[in-house]
Amino acid sequence: MLRAVVVDDTAADRLLAETLLKHAGYAVTACSDGEDGLELIKRDTPDLIVVDVVTPGIDGYDLARAVRGNPGTAATPIILQTAYYLEEEVRRLAAQIGVAHVIIKPFEPQDFLDIVASAHEQKPALNGTARGGAGTAFNAEHMRLVSTKLHEKVQELEVARGEFQATASGYRQLFRVHPEPMWVFNVETLRFLEVNDAAVRRYGYSRNEFLAMTIKDIHRPEDVQALLETLHSPSTLEQPSSAFHRTKDGSVIEVQISTRDIGHGSRYVMAQDVTEKKKYQQQLQQAQRMESLGQLAGGVAHDFNNLLGVILNFSWFVKANLIAEVESGSGERWRPVLKDMERIERAAENAARLTHQLLAFARVDVVQPRAMDINAVVAETAPMLRRTLGEHINLVAVAGPDLWPVMIDAGQLSQVLTNLAVNSRDAMPKGGKLTIDAANVEVDLAYAAARPTLKPGRYVRLRVTDTGAGMDKKTLEHVFEPFFTTKPRGQGTGLGLATIYGIVTQAGGNIDVYSEPGLGTRVSVLLPATDQAMSAAVEVMPITAARASETVLVVEDSDDLREIVERILSGNGYHVMVAPNGPAAIDLARDHDGHIDLLLTDVIMPHMQGNDLAARMIESRPDIRVLYMSGFAQPAFGTTGKPDLVLLDKPFNEPTLLARVRQTLEARP
């Protein structure tokens, strides 16, 4: 295999030449110094030499002259690389020392490969000057070109210095007007070296007073020893920390400290006042926790109330038969059984009341961070989320492979999942897909640089993606602001993402939101990995109605409940049509030639929600009445956009169902 030596002090240019030569079939040895390059050439006697004109040690001209002066390498092809603008002069000087190939940087890869091929085919024609060195004229011309290059470098440095001074001035201005208190202090003496205007305003000291003080003067006396002990600890610089500072008037404020060493024994500090934020944090978390738990309770109530409805109504059927037997005079032996059925009925009614209490239940848990497996939390939360989100949302939970543990409170992590899932649900009122996935990621300096609170290192990424309405850029600018909401008034506190942001930031993580209108939203939460081991409604009074004759279309996805409703209504004179879902109900109504007086439909169903079905039915039958039934209780129904219509809360019994149906049919339009 052909061998080549590359000598170039610019790493990018050196790598490019190496790559292209390897592509051309050469084994390549490279270095950045001219003298080192000459030693490589003497040792390896390569088939080709590529050298930059300006290199440390000795430059490309001197290296080429030394190569030509050595009988063992005199015939080796040499390619000179240069960024000189005086191309003709460079080529002329190169020819004088036996170098026939010169390429001007930057170059196209194919141009370089063409010169390599040409150099390999043509052996240099050596004259005396090339073998023995160059005369005074060559040296003078060489120095003139070097002087020209040096002049260019000086000009570039002058431009760079001007740019640096302009940048430094900009940074000084940015430091001075930054809205958060900032200062620079000496790590050894602890004296303030510079402070910005925000520090003067918040702490009450003048700039001159600050410069006469040390950082110990703004700390509480009881905190000074701990400050001195942690001052030189690497962890002080690795992540934000909390501290209590004293202002000039003696008041104590809580601050979040971010700090960086800036060289020369100096350290930069930004102190964000979080005193007021801390006061409201518990209130914010409590309000959001109540909303989240309310959503969870709604999901439980939906399924549980369906079950209770089956228990209550079949108990009612059995009880009615037993009463008839007892009252007939020949069924006295059924009286104990009747009492047992009444106990079953009372227990079911008590359970129904408990489901209504769940809808208003919330509590504050003590935050206890511990090493957590995100996969386990997602797996535990997913079944409850499915109930909370409703059957119109397709929830997909993808476990991450070999996830690192994260340090966070289990309740807070569940709250993050719940809040994100509920937000996504609200963005998909007609249904859609919600995906939860997790993965290990390594955050590098470049990624962390654009996110001030994020440090490079190991993280676990929790990502929630939906196919909802999405958000525009203007909305995205405000998503983390407390009380900002895109929901209608009364249908959200605007604390969802604000609370998530607080939880994630408190855990040392980061949250990003990417969204496009009409395409959906992706929320990515980064939580730092840890090396710690993982530890383990208004009650409706029943009324007695005359035997009815109206036609009722019943739409309910639960087979048992659908049978119960049909049985009750048919037994009381109604003509009943039943369907398991919205599309089936539409087909049934289309094929029915007669009048349909009432649509009795569940709210949350697969394929089509109850309010969408009602809208379609009213289009074709404008005089039809609509009665909704739901296991969420009436306040939860408001989130679907139909709070003003009649709702029958599940579970219900026969008298309640008959009374509400009658009221709906007889109500004024």
* Low-confidence region ranges: 128-133, 357-367, 537-545, 633-643
What top-tier CATH class of the largest domain fits best?
A: Alpha Beta
How much of the residues is beta strand, in percent?
15-25%
Tally of helical segments: 23
Mean pLDDT: 82
- Judging by the overall fold, what is the CATH architecture of the largest domain? 2-Layer Sandwich
Characterize this entry briefly.
It is built from 23 helices and 22 strands. By secondary structure, it is α/β, with parallel strands linked by helices. A hairpin with a 2-residue loop joins strand 9 and strand 10.
What can you see in these coordinates?
By secondary structure, the protein is α/β, with parallel strands linked by helices. The protein has five domains: 2-151, Rossmann fold, CATH 3.40.50; 182-273, PAS domain (Beta-Lactamase, 2-Layer Sandwich), CATH 3.30.450; 282-358; 369-528, Heat Shock Protein 90, CATH 3.30.565; 551-666, Response regulator (Rossmann fold), CATH 3.40.50.2300. Helices cover 46% and strands 20% of the residues. It has 23 helices and 22 strands. It has a five-stranded parallel β-sheet with strand order 2-1-3-4-5, with helices on both faces. A five-stranded antiparallel β-sheet has the order 7-6-10-9-8. α2 (34-44) packs parallel to α3, α12 crosses α15 (410-426) and α14 packs parallel to α15. It starts with a strand and ends with a helix. Residues 128-133, 357-367, 537-545 and 633-643 have low confidence and may be disordered.
